[in-house]
Amino acid sequence: MLWWHDNFVFNMKKIVFLIIFSALYITGFSQSDIRLNNYWENPYFITPAYITNIYSEVFSMAARKQWAGFPGAPSTIFASATMYLDKLQTQFGVKMFKDQIGYTTTTNVSISYAYAAALNEDWRLHLGVAGSYQNLNYDLSKVAEATQNDPELYETLITETNYNADLGLELASKPFRVGIASQNFASLFSPGNKQETNTNFLYATYRNYSENPIDFSGGACGVQYGKMCQLELTASAYFKTEEEGKDRFQVGLFYRTTSEVGFLCGVNITDALHLSYSYDYNVSGISRSSYGTHEVMLIYRIPRDPECHNCY
Hints:
- Strand 2 and strand 3 form a beta hairpin.
- It contains 3 helices and 14 strands.
- A 14-stranded antiparallel barrel has the order 1-2-3-4-5-6-7-8-9-10-11-12-13-14.
- The chain is mainly β and about 300 residues long.
């Protein structure tokens, strides 16, 4: 009887673990579209075609804790660096992120090239392409704690390495940006790639520039990944200094279909250093086990020398 009881308990633990594993596996697929709430501060995170010629170099770092309080919820670290060469109208960039969900870890490193073609005095066409290295691995020590070295499960937990590509096109003026982008484009031709799903963006943003103490911006972004589609709407207010009319800090709100709302804020610590924070709350069933999502981004921008007054 004792043997039967121990075997029953072991099998129940195994079944419970497999249920949790399946939930995390599904969550992993939904997380295949990894993006930031604060990406309007640096849209390079979603498209290799984003170029700003105000600065010669831009460096950014971000940390995101998704669904705080939910077991195995994603934790993500981002970093990027871009360099714009005015004479060549060219931008080179590198971007990386590390995303951990439960005992799975995804690492992505990409290198990009973008070109800015001047259409007239007000508008530019940006074209961008990026190639990426992707790695998916598992912390088997965490798996062993729950499965007691189940060989059948270990056969599915094999480290994977893939290569992918991103594409982007953007039409930009000082107040407007309209663009399309495709992340993990090469996944369309490699159905065996389980790490990253092809994700497509269609976005538009407007920011007014006035002599008033407050300016406003608004943006809309449609996202399609797999069979899922989302729409995100964002609005922000920028508060400026009285002396120079430069942005000092901003606050904003956003809504992401079908069940996420949030706010974001940012402050220019110096003319070069910008700090952003955002919080969003998922009002669906996951809210019963989560305290929301926190995200912090730090951006360091090096202005061009001499200063460019017609840049954006």
